[in-house]
């Protein structure tokens, strides 16, 4: 089959780069004149650039809809932009170790030194808390660094190309870059990849998840006997249904489709922040009587770690697989109630006799019904764990400024995803009325 590739115009511009966008790309403004002599200004995202740098960029016009295609389904893509020459570099620039950095869609910040990444993440959170959250002077702490900002990911989802090779996709496309290793993947995942990529993978994706506390690994789809044997030679024990990982001194069983934090070392720190935020400064006898809710509990990480300290834990989760794991993980704890369901359905019906909440929703943040329930029956403390600072800022504004039901005590950025633009936060809120 012959495929006719559309020819796309590439223009070159020498520019000074502006601030990083929240996606982690530098920005650039260019002006172009069309055939009618009209000048149009465009704000572009420049991957692998840094503010203040003087660079030449190539700008490839986005594809246009093919004749006959319904325009209704057409989604205009931004132009593809890449740096062709660096004239003046930023003092924050370092050599990115990955050969596909800038092309791969996985990392955005490998070219920026690590302290600068941490400072930039704090700055993004500050700006969002001010502009979206309406906190004039937010109580924002410094970003907690990851002790090793490389090889931290315990879970990788590789795409597979037509030749059956696993890799990561290029930014803004479905084009698979076959990989021998990835500098943010855990060393055990890279070891497994070096075996898996020697075989033809029949499915469009390969998921690899490893434990850091032992040699157990989950791989989907299941690999054949030969691959499993070769992995065993590399000391990797491929599990069939569940694997076990240790966090905060407790063992957690995890199924392939259950959520588990992807950076175990940082998750340890995060769990301690949750415990401290909820229980610190309170007399032991009061803590032992507390009823706390772990909403969006996943496999029960926070619930299990809170259980030894408090009177009762109610854990809520919608995923059937995570619920099975949570039940196993807390099988020996009597004072835990595990509820399968949506937080927005369960929360309004819960008793008002709750002393503290841990909420760790997906990126979209909390639904308004959840925020309403927290405002109607304010609890002494909420620990809001968030993987998206913009929805966190939106929800904190409702909980603290609009309703004035809570006071924001602290927001702690935690670098769960070094080398990427993703930002995790732990916010501590307390009820305004005692
Ligand atoms: C960010 S994860 C947090 C998991 C857990 N707190 C942890 O640290 O491992 C969010 C979890 O919320 C669950 N979830 C998503 N939407 C939900 C909803 N509306 N109600 C209940 N659980 C939900 C997901 O299945 C996922 O396990």
TrEMBL record:
Coiled-coil boundaries: none
Binding site for S-adenosyl-L-methionine: 261, 296, 317, 360
Record family assignment: Belongs to the class I-like SAM-binding methyltransferase superfamily. RNA M5U methyltransferase family.
The protein's name in its UniProt record: 23S rRNA (Uracil-5-)-methyltransferase RumA
UniProt xrefs under Gene3D superfamilies: 2.40.50.1070, Nucleic acid-binding proteins, Vaccinia Virus protein VP39
GO MF assignments: rRNA (uridine-C5-)-methyltransferase activity
Catalytic site: 387, 387 (nucleophile)
SUPFAM superfamilies for this protein: S-adenosyl-L-methionine-dependent methyltransferases (SSF53335)
Key words of the record: Methyltransferase, S-adenosyl-L-methionine, Transferase
UniProt gene name: rumA
Annotated InterPro entries: MeTrfase_TrmA_AS, MeTrfase_TrmA_CS, NA-bd_OB-fold, SAM-dependent_MTases_sf, U5_MeTrfase_fam
């Amino acid at each position: 089959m012959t495929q006719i590739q559309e020819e796309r115009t590439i223009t070159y511009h020498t520019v000074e780069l502006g601030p990083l966008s929240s996606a982690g790309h530098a920005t650039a403004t260019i002006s172009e004149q069309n055939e009618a002599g009209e000048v149009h200004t465009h704000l572009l995202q420049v991957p692998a650039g840094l503010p203040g740098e003087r660079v030449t960029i190539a700008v490839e016009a986005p594809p246009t809809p093919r004749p006959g295609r319904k325009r209704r389904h057409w989604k205009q893509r931004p132009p593809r932009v890449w740096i062709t020459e660096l004239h003046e570099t930023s003092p924050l620039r370092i050599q990115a170790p990955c050969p596909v950095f800038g092309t791969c869609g996985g990392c955005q910040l490998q070219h920026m030194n690590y302290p600068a990444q941490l400072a930039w993440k704090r700055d993004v959170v500050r700006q969002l808390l001010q502009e979206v959250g309406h906190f004039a002077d937010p109580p924002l702490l410094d970003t907690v660094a990851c002790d090793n900002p490389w090889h931290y990911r315990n879970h990788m989802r590789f795409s597979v190309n037509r030749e059956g090779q696993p890799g990561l996709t290029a930014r803004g496309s479905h084009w698979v870059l076959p990989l021998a290793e990835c500098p943010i993947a855990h060393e055990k995942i890279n070891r497994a990849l070096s075996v898996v990529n020697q075989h033809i993978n029949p499915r469009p994706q390969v998921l690899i998840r490893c434990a850091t506390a032992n040699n157990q690994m989950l791989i989907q789809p299941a690999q054949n006997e030969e691959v499993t044997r070769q992995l065993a030679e590399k000391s990797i024990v491929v599990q069939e249904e569940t694997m076990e990982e240790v966090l905060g001194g407790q063992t957690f069983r995890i199924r392939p489709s259950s959520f588990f934090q992807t950076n175990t070392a940082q998750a340890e720190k995060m769990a301690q922040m949750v415990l401290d935020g909820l229980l610190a400064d309170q007399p032991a006898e009061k803590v032992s009587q507390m009823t706390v809710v772990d909403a969006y509990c996943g496999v029960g990480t926070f619930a299990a770690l809170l259980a030894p300290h408090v009177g009762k834990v109610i854990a809520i989760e919608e995923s059937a697989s995570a619920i099975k794991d949570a039940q196993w993980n807390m099988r020996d704890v009597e004072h835990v109630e595990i509820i399968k369901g949506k937080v927005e359905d369960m929360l309004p019906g819960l008793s008002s006799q709750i002393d503290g909440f841990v909420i760790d929703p997906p990126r979209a943040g909390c639904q308004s019904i959840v925020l309403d329930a927290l405002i109607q029956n304010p609890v002494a403390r909420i620990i809001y764990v968030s993987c998206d600072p913009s929805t966190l800022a939106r929800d904190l504004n409702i909980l603290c400024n609009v309703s004035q039901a809570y006071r924001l005590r602290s927001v702690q950025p935690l670098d769960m995803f070094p080398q990427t633009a993703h930002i995790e936060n732990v916010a501590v809120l307390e009820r305004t009325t005692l």
